[in-house]
């Protein structure tokens, strides 16, 4: 290919790029609403909590304050907890879970733990009202799990989250998100599992699963 041919290819590519930018600029000019989002991470694939804590770290990097309630993984000494606890002025982490249901084997205790976590979540949400909100983002880790097992009334959860303060972001994680929560959400991402090493006998890895 000659230098002249390369120049022509580059010219065409640059022209296409300029047109794409013009289209995108026009589209962005129509996006004027600023609000707190209700975000749901669900699906059978790995990465739901990982993505939520990535958002929490991004919020911290922007000087925002974050509240976290962990509904299921209470006994896990997770890496994200150790990291985030190093920012006590910006983040508050609360744990109500006592482990997965197959570990506790006590439905009544699991319901009490879920109710305790939900009480903390509602307290955090209420603390965001007024001129000086305590948090800019609240992560409700594995909320979808306790809703799936009907440990909490989904109608109440959806109502409270729907009536959150206008600027507050809330992130709910866990597979099998309830349709009512999906309907109420502003942003829903479903993680799809293609391959997982657990199927090949690989146990949970430090730094990957916890």
How is this structure best described in words?
With 210 residues, this protein is an alpha/beta fold. The protein has two domains: 32 residues; 168 residues, Rossmann fold (3-Layer(aba) Sandwich). 44% of the residues lie in helices and 14% in strands. Strands 3-2-4-5-1-6 form a six-stranded parallel β-sheet, sandwiched between helices. Helix 3 links the parallel strand 2 and strand 3. The radius of gyration is 21 Å and the shape is globular.
The share of residues in extended strands comes to: 5-15%
* Overall body shape: globular
Spatial ordering of strands, largest sheet: 3-2-4-5-1-6
Topology, number of strands: 6
User: How would you name the CATH homologous superfamily of the largest domain?
Assistant: P-loop containing nucleotide triphosphate hydrolases
Q: What fold name stands as the CATH topology of the largest domain?
A: Rossmann fold
Short description:
With 210 residues, the protein is an alpha/beta fold. 44% of the residues lie in helices and 14% in strands. It has helices at residues 3-29, 48-61, 79-84, 101-104, 107-126, 143-148, 154-162, 179-184; strands at 38-42, 66-70, 91-95, 137-141, 169-173, 187-190.
Topology diagram in text:
Elements: H1 3-29, E1 38-42, H2 48-61, E2 66-70, H3 79-84, E3 91-95, H4 101-104, H5 107-126, E4 137-141, H6 143-148, H7 154-162, E5 169-173, H8 179-184, E6 187-190
Parallel strand pairs: 1-5, 1-6, 2-3, 2-4, 4-5
């Amino acid at each position: 290919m000659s230098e002249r041919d390369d120049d022509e290819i580059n010219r065409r590519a640059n022209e296409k790029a300029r047109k794409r930018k013009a289209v995108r600029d026009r589209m962005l000019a129509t996006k004027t609403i600023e609000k707190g989002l209700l975000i749901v991470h669900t699906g059978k694939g790995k990465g739901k909590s990982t993505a939520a804590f990535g958002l929490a770290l991004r919020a911290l990097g922007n000087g925002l304050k974050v509240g976290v309630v962990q509904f299921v993984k209470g006994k896990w000494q997770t890496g994200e907890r150790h990291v985030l606890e190093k920012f006590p002025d910006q983040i508050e982490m609360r744990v109500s879970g006592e482990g997965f249901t197959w570990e506790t084997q006590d439905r009544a205790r699991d319901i009490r733990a879920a109710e305790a976590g939900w009480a903390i979540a509602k307290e955090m949400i209420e603390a965001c009202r007024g001129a000086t909100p305590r948090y800019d983002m609240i992560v409700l880790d594995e909320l979808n799990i306790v809703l799936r097992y009907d440990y909490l009334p989904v109608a109440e959860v959806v109502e409270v989250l729907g009536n959150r303060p206008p600027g507050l972001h809330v992130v709910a994680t866990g597979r099998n998100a309830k349709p009512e929560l999906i309907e109420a959400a502003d942003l829903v991402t479903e993680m799809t599992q293609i391959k997982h090493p657990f199927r090949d006998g690989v146990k949970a890895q430090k730094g990957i699963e916890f």
